[in-house]
């Protein structure tokens, strides 16, 4: 079981099928909020969908192709931060995250993302971490900027989000740029 202590308030825990009910309940009550930036929400209709997603990500973890973690703040599930993909030949990964609307503004996500960056650089020994965020998703973009990521460009029509295209701002952080304290 993977478990990472970010600080005395925040822990990252590998998501398993046992977490499916709690995570699905969160998704179900937060659909409108999550749907603004996350294209998979409408495909998550049942606890079983969440359980299947957890199983897929456990398989990715076992193959060292990704790491899907739940964020616990003071013992409460509040969101996710993940290494979505790892490209071992290029020694880089892409991370993603979402946080319960009620817990925003507390620095939780910034600290959780810092934790996943530490894992990418120090445990996986990767050389680069990327964040792709919708251009208009200012909250997600601010996290990247706050943690020292460089805006490397914009991918036009990077994602079809329900009924429209979304451009993505691409941010990158190199291992030798990471100071780890923000």
Order of helices and strands: EEHHHEEEHEHEE
Beta-strand fraction estimate = 35-45%
CATH H-tier superfamily of the domain at 3-127: Gcn5-related N-acetyltransferase (GNAT)
Which CATH architecture of the domain at 3-127 would you pick?
3-Layer(aba) Sandwich
Task: Provide a quick synopsis of the model.
This protein has 182 residues and is an alpha+beta fold. 31% of the residues lie in helices and 36% in strands. The model has no long low-confidence stretch (mean pLDDT 92).
Q: What would you note in describing this structure?
A:
The chain has a domain at 3-127: Gcn5-related N-acetyltransferase (GNAT) (Aminopeptidase, 3-Layer(aba) Sandwich). Helices cover 31% and strands 36% of the residues. The protein contains 5 helices and 8 strands, in the order ββαααβββαβαββ. The protein has helices at 20-29, 31-35, 47-62, 108-123, 138-146, and strands at residues 3-5, 10-14, 67-73, 76-87, 92-99, 128-134, 150-161, 164-174. Strands 1-2-3-4-5-6-8-7 form an 8-stranded mixed sheet, sandwiched between helices. The longest helix has 16 residues, at 47-62.
Secondary structure layout:
Blueprint: E1 3-5, E2 10-14, H1 20-29, H2 31-35, H3 47-62, E3 67-73, E4 76-87, E5 92-99, H4 108-123, E6 128-134, H5 138-146, E7 150-161, E8 164-174
Parallel strand pairs: 5-6
Antiparallel strand pairs: 1-2, 2-3, 3-4, 4-5, 6-8, 7-8
């Amino acid at each position: 079981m993977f478990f990472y202590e970010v600080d005395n308030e925040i822990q990252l825990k590998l998501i398993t099928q046992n977490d499916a009910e709690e995570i699905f309940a969160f998704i179900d009550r937060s659909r409108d909020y999550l749907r603004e930036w996350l294209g998979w929400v409408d495909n998550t209709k049942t606890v079983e969908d969440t359980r299947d997603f957890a199983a897929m990500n456990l398989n990715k973890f076992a193959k060292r192709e990704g790491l899907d973690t739940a964020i616990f703040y003071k013992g409460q599930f509040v969101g996710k931060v993940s290494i979505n993909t790892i490209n071992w030949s290029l020694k880089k990964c892409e991370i993603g995250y979402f946080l319960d609307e009620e817990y925003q503004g507390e620095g939780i996500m910034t600290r959780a993302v810092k934790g996943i960056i530490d894992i990418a650089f120090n445990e996986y020994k990767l050389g680069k971490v990327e964040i792709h965020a919708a251009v208009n998703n200012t909250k997600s973009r601010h996290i990247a900027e706050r943690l020292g990521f460089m805006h490397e460009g914009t991918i036009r029509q990077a994602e079809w989000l329900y009924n429209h295209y979304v451009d993505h701002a691409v941010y990158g952080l190199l291992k030798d740029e990471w100071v780890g304290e923000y």
